[in-house]
Amino acid sequence: MNGAAQFETIEGQGIGVSSIWPARIGFRRRGLTCLDALLAAASPAEGCALLLGCRRETHWQVERVWPCLNGWQPMGERSRRFAIDPREQLLAQKWGRARALTVLGAAHSHPASAPLPSVTDRRLAFPPALLVIAGPPGGDGDSRGSTRADLPRTGWVLRCWWLTEEDTQPLPLAWKMVD
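Above: the chain's sequence. Below: its structure in token form.
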């Protein structure tokens, strides 16, 4: 395919909208370890990070986790809200560009609730967007019924979501540790 990225195209849920997203998200073990540590350090506030990597033929590969401070105001609401400073986003983009990486999306935690995109998460995102959310196991809408911890330090599960440009439900994405 001459190096061009190929993504799975799936029709929207009966609404005639076509959305394009990666078939799965790949994480390296060291990236998951970093993400787990930074989310644990931020708790009980929501922790947040940017995900830098490459768009491959059938999936997106996260190569680096860029830790960010939760800048949500007022501070008292940080246990259920997060905001990434746009200057951090620009620094991550500049750093990544110099290394042939792109900002693929954002990760954050839900320390006291399921790793599902909240109404606020969806409202503040700029779709199409990749959201990776970590939270306590159970009640997370996982059809597999998994209660195993994906992140050992926090004991949380990790879920990946694709937000379409339309105001529809977030779409779950598969993820895999690749090393």
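The longest strand covers residues 60-68.
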